[in-house]
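Bug #77: duplicate submission created two jobs. Keeping one. Sequence:
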Amino acid sequence: MSSFSLVSIVYLVIVIGLIALFIVSFSLFMRRLLINSSLKTKHSSEIDKKLDKIIELLEKDKKN
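Kept job's structure:
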C-alpha cells in the first residue's frame, strides 16, 4: 500500500511539474511574440519615414 501511494505522489509531482513548465514556456513564448511584433512595427515605421524623406528629396530634385 505504501509503495502505491509513493508512486502516486511521484506521478502527481511529475504531472504538476509538466503543467507548470507548459505555463511558463507558453507565457515566455507569448512575451517573445509581443516583443518581436512591437520591434517589427517600430522598424516598419522607421522605414516609412525614410522613404517619405527620399520621396521628398526626389520631388525637390525633379522640380529643380
